Amino acid sequence: MRFIHVTCFDDWRAEARALLSNEISPADVHWSPEDNQPGLFDQPHQKKTGETAQDERPNASVQDTQSRFTVPSPFLELARQVACHRSPTRWQLLYQTLWRLVHGERRLLEMTTDDDVLLLQRMRKAVTRDVHKMKAFVRFRKIETDDQSESYIAWHRPDHFIMRLAAPFFQRRFKGMSWTILTSHESAHWDQHQLTYGPGLPASEAPNADALEGLWKTYYASIFNPARIKVDMMKREMPVRHWPTLPEATLIDDLIRDAPARVTEMIKNHEGFSETGMHYLPAQQDLESLRQAVVGCQACDLCHDATQSVFGVGPEDARMVLVGEQPGEREDIAGEPFVGPAGELLNASLRDAGIDRQAVYLTNVVKHFKFERRGKRRLHKKPDSREIYACRPWLESEIAALKPQTVICLGATAAQALLGRDFRLSQQRGHIQKTQWSEQTIATWHPAAILRMPDENRKREMVNQLVTDLKRCAEVVQ
Ligand code: SF4
Q1: How far apart are CA 261 and CA 282, in angstroms?
Q2: Residues 129 and 250 grouped into a single domain
Q3: What is the pLDDT, as a whole number, of residue 41?
Q4: Does ligand 1 have an atom closer than 6 angstroms to the CB of 178?
Q5: Cα dihedral: 68, 72, 73, 76 (round 10)
Q6: CATH of the domain at 388
Q7: pTM surpassing 0.85?
Q8: What's the pLDDT at 236?
Q9: Which residues contact 454 (CB under 8 A, 6 or more apart)?
């Protein structure tokens, strides 16, 4: 029997490769059952962002130069995630599966009823979910450093050893600030140049309160809609064990009690909170007042490079509202939505569906054109979640002023903005549902996405689907 201790995926991979090369069966190996993740007194294994392990390359297939086996790349991806699971049996299970894969069961991972595969998939799911929770629940607090520069720190309590899976997300998201995330088993530090990992630290090392906390609470209150709150679901999605590290958790009881109007008032009155278009909304929220007020909106950076804001157009009594993503190049110049090539296709589709374009209201989720300059050209760039969030009060106010019977989301951005981030256009297109926005809300293809489709047959099919979806809505409206 061989006794092997490993502390991370790279160690396990090296050991497993050597064992396989020597034809050591899983039954003859005892993997250390202890939790060997780095602790407070361990030497940290430093890894810089520039380093890329062989197993981390997408679609890589590792071939040991001293051995005769190759490992399917899907297994490496799976193993890298399962290695982050807290279970002490994970190393044994991984080696057992690897052994089977290279000993005649090459398609083992496709057998979803196999006990080992089933267990690995469950472990992967738990790890993926934990990474998702970490992305959602990490809250940074500002700290003063010795050299008076700003730095941010967060404490989080994951279920599994997921720091290295989640940290690259924070590096991308908060590239321009220095931060540290602490967990009990490992820490990650980003200094705006390098991502490094260190030992875990106790919760007492994280500061309790600072100025950011107040701002975050206001932000949370602004997105919290007491009218829609479902306490059980909230506890499921925001597990109670994370509440001590979430500043906004202290607000939850009050927010559940408060009326939406009171929350709105709180946001409006909070000085300096100019993160969303809400700060620029006029007192009167009829369409004309909104149209005039949006011209002065500076809630996000898109207003600086675009020619002008592009507000919705259409009659005030429109029963049908079509929502796209953002104005394009032509719309930015004209100051009106859907006037370019995508607008022409939309016009034709509305006509084929028997809908009078003059009777519908057309608008976008984001009111300023986002683009990237390439020489003299301005290439469309997808708005990010921060811009969509900032612009949301304008869209909500438009819909509230119109009170339409039907809202049609054109494309994934509009669908996810109005129907939730989990909405998948490819799977849920054409489903009519009752929402807070209208009696019937539906999502379908954006004409610009159809125009970008290179396959002509697919393009024709998408046009037909767009017309069919529009027709179905028209029938109900009439
Ligand atoms: S995109 Fe929306 S939130 Fe951003 S500046 Fe324009 S109107 Fe304001």
Answers
A1: 16
A2: no
A3: 31
A4: no
A5: -80
A6: 3.40.470.10
A7: no
A8: 61
A9: none
Pair (239, 197) in one structural domain: no
Runs of H (alpha helix) within 356-424: 385-402, 412-419
The pairing of strands 186-190 and 195-199 is: antiparallel
In whole angstroms, what is the distance from residue 177 CA to residue 191 CA? 7
Q: Which atom of ligand 1 is nearest to the CA of 393?
A: 3
With CA atoms as reference, report the closest residue to 408 among 358, 460, 474, 457.
Answer: 474
Which stretches in the chain have pLDDT values below 50? 35-65, 211-212, 215, 219, 223, 226-229, 259-260, 262-264, 266-274
Which residue segment(s) compose the domain that 258 sits in?
A: 211-269
Q: Is residue 200 part of a domain?
A: yes
Q: List the 440-444 sheet strands across, edge first.
A: 361-364, 320-324, 406-410, 440-444
Q: Which residue has the tokens 């003299």?
A: 376
The per-residue pLDDT for 139 is: 78
Domain identity same for 371 and 335: yes
Going by alpha carbons, the residue nearest to atom 2 of ligand 1 is 391
Kindly state whether residue 275 falls inside one of the protein's structural domains.
Answer: no
CB of 201 within 6 A of ligand 1: the answer is no
| 312 and 458 both lie in a single domain | yes
Same domain? For 383 and 468 the reply is yes
Into how many domains does the chain fold? 4
Same domain, 226 and 155: no
145 and 130 assigned to the same domain = no
